[in-house]
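G., the chain you wanted modeled:
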Amino acid sequence: MALSASSPKWPVLPDYSHDWALVDVETSGLRPGRDRVLSLAILTLDAHGNRTGEFSTLLNPGCDPGPVHIHGLTPARLAGAPTFGEVAPQVGALLGSRVLVAHNAQFDYDFLAHEFAHVRSWVPVSRRLCTLALNRLVGPATPDLKLGTLAVHYGVRQEKAHDAQDDVRVLSGILRGSLGAAERLGLSLPLLECPPRQDYKPYVPKTPCAYRNPGRPESGGALVQGMKVAITGDTHVAREELVARSVAAGLNMMTSVSGQTSVVVTNDPGAASGKLRRAADEGVPVVDESTYLRLLESVQPGRAKGAARQRRATKTPASTTTAPSGPTPHVPVQRTATPAASTGTADLPLAGRRVLVLGGTHDEAAGARARAVALGASAAVNLSADVSDVVVLPGGEADRRMGRITSLGLRVHDADWLLAPTSAPAQSTAGNQPDTAEVLVRGAVIDLPDAGTAWTVAAAWRQQTACDVDVVAFAVDAQELVAGDEDFVFYGAPEHPDGTVRLATDGPTEQAVTADLERLPLEIHRIVIAAAIDGAATFSDVGAIEITATCGIGAAPTARATLDAATSERTMILAELYRRGAGWRLRAVGQGYDHGLAPLARGYGVDVAG
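Predicted structure as tokens:
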């Protein structure tokens, strides 16, 4: 469908009526809390799109400004600038009671939250909108979703990239155009609740344990580096000091007890603590503090984890191998036979087309999506500008999106169309660009073309989904086990301590895992990405989950897959990034389980209480 590049009027839908605070930051690095904000610009708009305020400043971070070749902010330029603490009251007044808007909003929000934490305050933002996530829903006819590309599409002049003041001006035009496009599609805005947080703290690096877990000590034997240790109850030595001494000795300090715990330290073995009950159930040895302190004096050397690859991984030629080498996964995943690395869909009748399925039972809709993909199309989970065809199953005619679909002039078909689809050009008469991402069926594998770069696997589901879905990631070794709990990335710990794996939430129905493949330790063989439904709901309530793989923020997807679990399943392994020789591969998995997240995590060796 053709959506005009810009809208002369501000959208009038009541759900789009908000006061906005558009934000852009330039920073000394990419990790909030460790790195600092160097430049900040804010533009405020009322509910009708009228400008109500503007603020911009350089900031003296008190540290090295980082990549000057990108942002041009040298120490000399920043030397006379105010500190964040000096402008925090003014910044807070502009952000308060408004929806924060940014392109890749979690990045800007997290940096501001940590800057406020540095001055013993918190960022006064309760909701945010990511224009990158919004445009992923809209699906404009652009080669990618980078700020500069969207500026051209929405008719906004960009004068100076990586300049906060100019970027926030450009952002205002992109917001206007994006809201107009979303209104024409009848989309709900991906507003994300983010109530003011007071738990952000200045960055304190948490160093993962450098040694593999050797198991439990022999009776009366020594401790070995890498052993997992938990402490419960009062201690004579301050708990913080005891933990610090243990970490310095190479032990892995845990906050819970599981079957993989090596030893529990307590001065009251008769106490009814949860850790001691679990230790008794699992047969974990228990020692008192004085014994533990004596053992700390002679901790034996452990087996070090692998180091990160020091050179750029070479590109691996496309291969038709159907499965990775290595042992059987620890979690019993029933893997579908993998097609060739690049199955090729160019000669299929629906190649380059994007199909949205409405109505039907969960199994009927899943079957229709699978048929569309087998014919070369990609299956959409939401109505977007890149949808070219709509398949209406029984009950689908009552879908609230049908009115929009009719007004947009989309091709509408019944289920029989998928049995013998009519030929049509990949680019529809409405002006769509063909979908160029590699379409993966369940079990399909592709080689990642640039394994030396961070890759992002994003998961999205239907906007009308009522239950919560959590995306998680496990960084596992050749035995399909995590080396430590820090290798489990989830909503409670959204970043690996070394920054190599990160979880981002871009909206109520979209989350993404980013992995810096070149920096991953050599012992990490695979990143397993899964989705878990919170509560008693199942994937029959959620429907399909669409995953996309991209290399870089706002880049065009390299591959996409739409995955359906069975009606009774509550967790699903979505995708895997895994080593293949010197390179990396992506596999679309789509394996579901009836149990919740905790059993899945335990299967990968994560300490989960209860």
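Residues 1-7, 310-343, 426-431 have pLDDT under 50 and may be disordered.

Shout if anything looks off.
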